[in-house]
């Protein structure tokens, strides 16, 4: 299975000349015969091609998956509107609840109604979320649907602000 080097096909990504087993023999006609092992060239060439293809497929897969994950992210609203119930009684409660809401970075507007017991918010979702606001209101001593104030914070409220807890 030996061929002359002149018949061996060399490609851009082929094996270096050092990878060939080269034998040189000079015959009676003074012609040099350079021979290479066909098996060595084929096996090394296939490994090189396979590794290059695998590298390219791996990189392509990473880029495709990365692109999909970037597109899958939800864009956060800078002016998200929320409304939720906050327990309270009077105008003093209104001031405390609104002050607690504004203590959260990202709250642009907060308005609590004494009649409806609803807190209306405009919130930048890139800086905070609705749960942060509810926790701040609960820390001020007022219950929301999801987050309840601790007994310690509730007892710090003035007498007129202590509502009937559910």
Overall radius of gyration: 38 Å
Low-confidence stretches: 1-40
User: What oligomeric state is this?
Assistant: single chain
Residue share in helices?
25-40%
Helix and strand element order: EEEHEHEEHH
Distance between the termini: 92 Å
DSSP helical segment count? 4
E-strand count: 6
Task: Sum up the structure in keywords.
three-stranded antiparallel β-sheet; 37% helix; disordered N terminus; 166 residues; alpha+beta; rod-shaped
Describe the fold and architecture:
It is a single chain. The chain has helices at residues 38-72, 91-102, 130-139, 151-155; strands at 2-4, 23-26, 32-37, 80-85, 107-112, 118-123. It has a 3-stranded antiparallel sheet. It has a 3-stranded antiparallel sheet with strand order 4-6-5, covered by helices on one side. Residues 1-40 have low confidence and may be disordered. The N and C termini lie far apart (92 Å). The chain is of the alpha+beta class. It is built from 4 helices and 6 strands. It is rod-shaped, with a radius of gyration of 38 Å.
What would a concise description of this structure say?
With 166 residues, the chain is α+β, with helices and mostly antiparallel strands. 37% of the residues lie in helices and 19% in strands. It has 4 helices and 6 strands, in the order βββαβαββαα.
Task: Tell me the layout of helices and strands.
Elements: E1 2-4, E2 23-26, E3 32-37, H1 38-72, E4 80-85, H2 91-102, E5 107-112, E6 118-123, H3 130-139, H4 151-155
Antiparallel strand pairs: 1-3, 2-3, 4-6, 5-6
């Amino acid at each position: 299975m030996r061929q002359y080097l002149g018949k061996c096909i060399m490609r851009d990504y082929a094996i270096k000349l050092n990878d060939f087993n080269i034998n040189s023999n000079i015959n009676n006609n003074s012609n040099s015969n350079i021979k290479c092992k066909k098996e060595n060239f084929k096996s090394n060439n296939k490994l090189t091609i396979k590794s290059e293809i695998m590298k390219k497929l791996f990189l392509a897969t990473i880029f495709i998956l990365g692109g999909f994950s970037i597109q899958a992210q939800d864009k956060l609203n800078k002016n998200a509107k929320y409304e939720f119930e906050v327990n309270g009684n009077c105008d003093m409660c209104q001031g405390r609840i609104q002050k607690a809401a504004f203590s959260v970075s990202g709250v642009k507007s907060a308005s609590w109604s004494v009649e409806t017991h609803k807190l209306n918010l405009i919130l930048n979702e890139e800086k905070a979320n609705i749960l942060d606001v509810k926790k701040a209101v609960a820390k001020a001593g007022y219950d929301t649907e999801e987050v309840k104030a601790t007994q310690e914070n509730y007892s710090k409220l003035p007498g007129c602000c202590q509502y009937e807890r559910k």
